[in-house]
Specification:
The chain has helices spanning 8-14, 31-38, 50-58, 60-66, 82-93, 106-116, 131-136, 144-150, 154-158, 163-182, 188-200, 208-215, 219-231, 260-266, 281-299, 344-352; strands at residues 20-24, 43-46, 71-74, 99-102, 121-125, 235-238, 254-257, 306-310, 316-323, 326-332, 357-364, 370-372, 375-379. By secondary structure, it is an alpha/beta fold. The longest helix has 20 residues, at 163-182.
């Protein structure tokens, strides 16, 4: 099944404005499938192929003369020396949409782009299916716990795969290939433990020293490994909102996973029934909603800035969406019924920062949308509406 992707129109538009388009994102998010679907007249060259990689490495000029225009270079980070020659080629030819470069090892690919192709390349990121894509293909489940288990990677839906088997293979591939390529991890078992410990801290204010101690590594190593998880689109960090006028605000980041199915696997969930009363269910729901909002922000090129709010008195708001000097406030609750204390953080912020409060939202695990206490209450499936 070919699911229409939100990013399609943006991608096609940017190809008319830049000589090179870069498409990055986590492994198996559907990048190659999307490019082949949208660009059937482009030649496709995988630099995973040994012969192609050797050709590009040993004679890059002849390689680019052979593949001179309208070409997709997949896994382009495998030949970093090619990027200097790409710069000269597109500067000479002046053809919009001449090349598309794609890859799953985002850190290495982006490093090559920033060194050689600044100003010549439009950069897009593709993540696993968002809610709009799942809805259009009639794949979004009625119960959010079902999505906790399956996640949203395309292969699980397209090939009806077992989520447990899929994510086991995914983690093995990620650790064995991507992590080994980027950093010299002496003991991959320790890195796997680090990954699982990160999952256990989902939605929590991150204490890097505690994480490092529990994993048996230094804080410096923990910071480096967390950076790798970010660069390869496994996790993302939420930045706290704070102002100098209030010294009591929490200034540490929060940790989330881009895919809630991968998160479930790392938490050793092997059956959706385990999720009914799972102790981290609320954190996982928050993760799913924030991941969805972040995906939409990237897929639709909205360029919104996101924060969370928390002070030393435990007043907290899960998401602040910035609009110049004002913010939309978003509270996230997994419950299917609403309780008065759900408004505690929203009310506190509005009372103390009225001039900064724009709109208020409460996203919950129920199915109805309505207004309550001057707040738009949205079911989880409609969480993207907080971005307009």
């Amino acid at each position: 099944m070919l699911v229409n992707r939100t990013i399609e129109k943006t991608l096609q538009s940017l190809l008319t404005q830049y000589p090179i388009l870069s498409l990055t994102g986590p492994r198996q998010a559907g990048k190659t499938t999307l490019l082949k679907k949208l660009l059937p007249n482009y030649r496709y060259v995988s630099l995973e192929d040994t012969d192609m990689r050797t050709f590009a490495t040993e004679d890059p000029r002849d390689f680019l003369n052979t593949f001179d225009q309208f070409v997709i270079f997949d896994e382009a980070q495998r030949v970093p020396t090619l990027f200097n020659y790409l710069q000269n080629k597109v500067d000479t030819d002046q053809i919009m949409g001449q090349y598309v470069i794609s890859g799953s090892q985002n850190f290495l690919l982006l490093e090559s782009i920033t060194q050689s192709l600044a100003g010549r390349v439009a950069m897009l990121q593709l993540f696993p299916f968002d809610f709009a894509e799942l809805t259009s293909a009639q794949l979004l489940p009625n119960q959010y716990t079902s999505l906790f288990y399956t996640g949203s990677y395309p292969a699980i839906f397209n090939r009806n795969l077992s989520p447990t088997t899929y994510y086991n293979n995914y983690v093995n591939t990620y650790v064995e290939r991507d992590v080994r390529t980027i950093i010299n991890v002496k003991d991959l078992a320790v890195f796997r433990l680090f990954l699982k410990l990160c999952a256990g801290r989902v939605g929590q204010v991150l204490n890097l020293n505690s994480l490092a101690t529990e994993c048996g590594i230094s804080s410096h190593t923990a910071r480096a490994w967390l950076g790798i998880l970010e660069a390869s689109s496994i996790v993302f960090l939420m930045t706290p909102f704070f102002q100098n006028i209030n010294k009591r605000l929490v200034k540490s980041q929060k940790l989330y996973f881009w895919d809630v199915g991968l998160l479930s696997f790392l938490l050793d969930i092997r059956d959706p029934e385990q999720l009914v009363s799972y102790y981290l269910r609320g954190n996982m729901f928050e993760n799913m909603i924030l991941s969805e909002i972040h995906k939409r922000n990237y897929h639709e090129q909205l360029h919104q800035n996101f924060y969370f709010y928390r002070d030393s008195n435990q007043n907290e708001i899960d998401l602040l969406v910035q609009h110049a000097a004002q913010f939309d406030l978003v509270e996230i609750k997994s419950s299917q019924t609403l309780h008065a204390d759900f408004w505690k953080g929203l009310r506190h912020f509005e009372e103390n920062q009225a001039e900064m409060t724009r709109h208020k939202y409460l996203i919950y695990g129920g199915s109805d949308a309505y207004q309550r206490q001057n707040t738009a209450v949205l079911p989880w499936q409609k969480c993207g509406q907080v971005l307009g």
